[in-house]
Amino acid sequence: MRKGPPQRRLPSQSTGCSLRIRTALITEPGAQANSLRSPLGSGRWQNRIMKIRKATDSDTAAIIAVDHAAAHDENRRRHIREWVSGDSTIVAEVDDAVVGYATLEYTFFSQGFISMLIVAEASRRKGVGTALVSQLEQVCKAEKMFTSTNQSNEPMQALMHRMSYEPSGVVHNLDDGDPELFYFKKLKGNR
Fold first, then answer.
1. Is residue 68 within 8 Å of 75, Cβ to Cβ?
2. Using N-to-C axis directions, what is the helix angle for 128-139 and 154-162, rounded to 10°?
3. How far apart are CA 10 and CA 147, in angstroms?
4. Mind giving me the DSSP string for 68-91?
5. pTM (whole model) above 0.90
6. Which neighbouring-strand residues pair with 14?
7. Please, which residues have CB within 8 angstroms of residue 171's CB and are 6 or more apart in sequence?
8. Residue ranges per domain, the chain?
9. 17-186 belongs to which CATH class?
10. What pLDDT digit, counting tens, does each position of 151-182 carry?
11. pLDDT in tens, 77-100
């Protein structure tokens, strides 16, 4: 029997059923990947590459298809078109299909604010949201990053906790009976 502290098992050494997905950060359409990471994925995601890049006008229909609210909300579709044309939106792609998007704005007291983060239902819990938020943190020009979510959105709250965002306040009455929870993170090194 071995003595001493137990060894920690790295994700790449896992004996479980988690599989690797490689994430390539691509800043411009058609550009070569300039960063590779290996978040854990599962199931059918084995050996697939997720690309994070700026959204282009040609992505608008795919973004609308991913965003379930846009299917029945013309106002949301208008916002998506504005975000994409305003150069404030990034997309995550797997096998050349958009599986998520996020929008970064500076309209919240001149701080970075993730105004939208959507991941296709079939692509959730595979690192897509984490990759999108991480990229926005890298490109944010402000010292602080904020975002918000409904109290009912427990997966987003869990993501914010995992990514070291702190609760920053609550706004009632935006959605009846579902308060908006605000989160914040002080960013380092890229201001």
1. no
2. 50
3. 31
4. GGGGT-HHHHHHHHHHHHTT-EEE
5. no
6. none
7. 148, 179, 180, 182
8. 17-186
9. alpha beta
10. 999 999 999 999 999 999 999 999 999 999 99
11. 999 999 999 989 999 999 999 999
